[in-house]
Amino acid sequence: MTDHQKRASHTRSEEGLVLDQPEYRIEGRAKVTGSATYTADVRREGMLDVSYARSMYPHARIISVDTAAARAMPGVHTVLLGSDVRPFCLGRTLQDWPVLAWDRVRLVGDRIAAVAADTLAEAEAACDMIAVEYEELPGIFSPEAAIAPGAPVLHPDSDGYRFLRGIRHPRSHPNMQGEGNHEHGDVEATFASASQVFEHTFDVARTIHGHLEPHVSAVWMEGDRFHVCSTNKSPFRLRDQLAAALEIPAERIVVDSEYIGGDFGGKGFSIDEYVLIILARTTGRPVRYVTRYADDIRAGNTRHAARFRMRTGVDARGRIVAHSANIVYDGGAYAAGKGNPALMPAGGLSTLVGYHLPAVRVDAMCAYTNNVPGGNARAPGQPQMSFASESHVDLIARSLGTDPLEFRRMNAIQIGDIDCNGERWGDSTFSAVLDLLHHETHWDRPPRAGRGRGMSLGARSSPEGGLTSDLMISVSAEAQIQVLTGVADQGGGAHTMMQRVIAERLGVPLDQIEVRKGATDVALFDLGAGGSRLTPVAGGAALAGADALSERLELLAPGRPVLAQLELAARSGDIRVKGHFEHEAGLHCTYACSVEVEVDRQTGQVSVVDCVFVADVGTVINPLALRGQLVGGFVSGLGQALMEELNVDEGFVTTPNLGDYKMPAMPDIPPIRIVLLTEHPGGGPFGAKSAGELANVAVAPAVANAVHDAVGVRITSLPITAEKVFAAMTATEPGTAN
After folding, report:
1. What CATH code would you report for 3-36+465-582?
2. pLDDT tens per residue, range 25-42
3. CATH dotted code for 381-462+586-731
4. Where are the alpha helices (DSSP H) in 260-381?
5. Is 454 left (phi over 0), alpha (psi -120 to 50) or beta?
6. Sign (positive/negative) of CA torsion 328, 245, 215, 134?
7. Which residue numbers in the chain have pLDDT < 70?
8. Where in the chain is the domain with CATH 3.30.365.10?
């Protein structure tokens, strides 16, 4: 952080009252009254509905597609095939997913043809009339099978795929989406000198995001420009991806994201807008597609299934001296949903994050299979990694006979220590969060008979360096401060955060500030929501804009109160300033979690009875939204811990709806106590830190550790179901791992 940013981050207005009060959400009235417009509400005169003909095979060659009967159906305007769009492929970083399949399908639900008709029923009926002849091909359903000798290559043309972020990393096998490794220190020598070495393997299931609103999109033409209305939370990135894939100048594409009905990492990736642009151009009519929820699950993006093999050596005092990990992710049929250049979950190499690790070697890979594609989900890769890492740490502590909290305290990274990526930490609040957890849980008192208690510890890095955000601030004729931002509203309260930051900085009432979202043709560039970046980065832009406006107002009317300056600005004409912020990485948000469980020894059923979550969040901007994020994230983590699993049988999803795929409901939610650590400022406005992806990361390992504490068996795969616990209790002696 620069000196200017440090001053800007911590200086508040003389009044300093805004951040001390609960917030009223800018969009709250529109949402609770039903007047908020979501993408599915968008209708245009003459709009056509779209449906797809989809593959029923996980891997097959397309021999022929007969559309004659479909084209003759009532209401049909056009039928689009893969041969009409070849070679266009889509993707956030690697464009490897054909807009429509033209030569082969790689997953059940792959899109083969698109029909635009007057009504959805007519479009669906026409799709049913499309006859596709296939040659079924051998399927690959695990990463290990993908790189086995003789495995079929799923993407034989992969060397020709467009890569949007530099140069694609080299691959050791054509069925690799991405792979990476990291090593620092003399790993083998340190292992050889270790007092004890521990090895464990963990598996995590594929899960879905759980947003109630599926992906929806609509496209129409305005002159020679395409207007894209989308549930995508990153409008500018989507615009650039569309332009690259379809070879259309970016200035001819306008993306406008309406209110977004839930995200959780799932709304940063789109697959339908590409088809709709072509259909809008072909028909000359507005077109829209509302994804059926089952199709969103079967052929969208999920959190990656993965396997972690971990090995750690400790010295005679119980300090970690060496660590290695081998990590395998199932990437599914396409890598298109991944947003980072490594084409792996972003946390894919960060094992034992938050611990001092003098010597480390991590090898990770993500392979193509004929399963549902893996993409970004809330805190990509880290819930899987945390389950494996914190279960592994807990097993080591118990094997050494050391209290799990004290073992973590002894090994937690401190200022100047080296982390899993070989980087030295310039800040650390682990001692503080552990002290709070110890106090809030009365850690020294054991749970009552029949119960067990487990914990987890960790950190989430601040957004990567170089992330920028821009917005525009102007003064209206009514002396209102008007903010124009490209940040879409996906439910996190970003616009309210901007309003509060500006009001706090300038010392003006909240109702003096209007925040408006603009489409990509009117708003300044912003990367969009994701990676817990909005408060530190977009909030930084709001703070910078407030500073720029303050300087302009002071030049206009030196020494006058802000409200008087605004009145003069309203009469003097156009007052317009830009708020720009560039984030510098380096800070970390730390957390500690405790869960208490009760296990029914007759059935193995796990009941969570008490939870404490300690979060290092710096200065709080939106108090209610912050707690909502942390509690909501905790419940999401609870679902991954105890019940959520997208079952896939040789490419076929067998839990394609929210009746079969179980998520937590209100009766499943235990008491959750949120404890905030606010004394250590971060790099966001007034010292705020990222918080949106802290809680869901922490829960699963704490539950596994609590189950072990309660009944003496270790569950090493997610979810931790009653069946797994009962089988472990009946198959092993207490105190051993299954």
Report:
1. 3.30.365.10
2. 999 999 999 999 999 999
3. 3.30.365.10
4. 273-283, 293-298
5. beta
6. negative
7. 1-16, 462-466, 585-587, 732-738
8. 3-36+465-582, 381-462+586-731
